[in-house]
């Protein structure tokens, strides 16, 4: 039997990581999902405790001071982070956990759990495709899209430190590739 893993999926905004992560969780209900904490505003379709733990800035900063986060980052003026209690509970119970977080957070998890983590970077085919995906999503204005695109060079540079690199040119192929990686690295072998 393989040891449980912390499967960390990262990508530039709009590369498809959340869509891919959701499909992997559908295929593998035995894998837990790491719900991040954030101070950003809740979007219309999001549910507290399913999509994020929505915290006030004061609550989040208190969690930082108390050491209750494995990793945290301030992105676009909002905090995002991973609750230490959620990860410890998963590992203690022998369950693998899937994360959908930014590249810096992924590297923080790898640093703290070097033998328990598997870092997967999802890349768009190119910046033009990424730009179009962000526009089509219709969740941000032009200024926010530009800020997201400004991070892409840094994210691509940090992706070199990841264990697996998948280009999301065709969504079903990217999902299948990640599924293969997880099946060989995480799931019990017969």
Walk me through what this model shows:
The protein has 8 helices and 9 strands. The protein has helices spanning 17-27, 57-65, 84-92, 103-112, 127-137, 142-150, 152-158, 171-185, and strands spanning 6-10, 32-33, 36-38, 52-54, 69-75, 78-83, 97-100, 117-123, 164-167. Strands 2-7-1-8-9 form a 5-stranded parallel β-sheet, with helices on both faces. Helix 1 (17-27) crosses helix 8 (171-185). The model has no long low-confidence stretch (mean pLDDT 88).
Computed structural class: alpha/beta
**How far is it from the N-terminal to the C-terminal residue, by CA?**
8 Å
Sheet with the most strands, sense and barrel status? 5 strands, parallel
Tell how many strands the DSSP assignment holds: 9
Q: Can you tell me the CATH class? A: Alpha Beta
Number of domains: 1
- Report Rg: 16 Å
Helix share of residues?
40-55%
Strand order of the largest sheet: 2-7-1-8-9
Low-pLDDT residue spans: none
Mean of the pLDDT scores? 88
What is the compact description of this entry?
The protein has 8 helices and 9 strands.
Strands, helices and their partners?
Layout: E1 6-10, H1 17-27, E2 32-33, E3 36-38, E4 52-54, H2 57-65, E5 69-75, E6 78-83, H3 84-92, E7 97-100, H4 103-112, E8 117-123, H5 127-137, H6 142-150, H7 152-158, E9 164-167, H8 171-185
